Structure to design on (130 residues):
């Protein structure tokens, strides 16, 4: 079991930057691959970025690739999403998610499929004004 709490959202002007954080409870954070997803009003939840257990493998959606960086600090049980050059279309609730938790979960998987994630945070709102 892991509990996730996102922070760092807010209102930012187009072209600005934000760093989202996701703090995880428990002592086995390093056994989870982590992902960020987002959902805008009236739209489906979309993949944003993911990072493997090892931190070596990352994946990004085309919409944020080149503008965002996902990273993790296992000593702090935290995963980050640094976003820059923000656009109004980046406005959404951003969710942190975790998958794995067992010693046999692959260390190099960074899934973009939300149905593979078992644990979700409550979300943090990001609003980008034009």
């Amino acid at each position: 079991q892991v509990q996730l709490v996102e922070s760092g959202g807010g209102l930012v002007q187009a072209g600005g930057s934000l760093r989202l954080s996701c703090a995880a409870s428990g002592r086995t954070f390093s056994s989870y691959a982590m992902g960020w997803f987002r959902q805008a009003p009236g739209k489906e939840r979309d993949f944003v970025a993911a990072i493997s257990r090892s931190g070596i493998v990352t994946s990004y959606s085309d919409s944020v690739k080149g503008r965002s960086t996902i990273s993790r600090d296992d000593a702090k049980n935290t995963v980050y999403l640094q976003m820059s050059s923000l656009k109004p279309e980046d406005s959404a609730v951003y969710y942190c998610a975790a998958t794995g938790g067992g010693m046999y979960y692959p260390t190099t998987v960074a899934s973009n499929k939300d149905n593979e994630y078992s644990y979700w945070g409550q979300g943090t709102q990001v609003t980008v004004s034009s």
Observations:
- The CA atoms of residues 51 and 58 lie 4 Å apart.
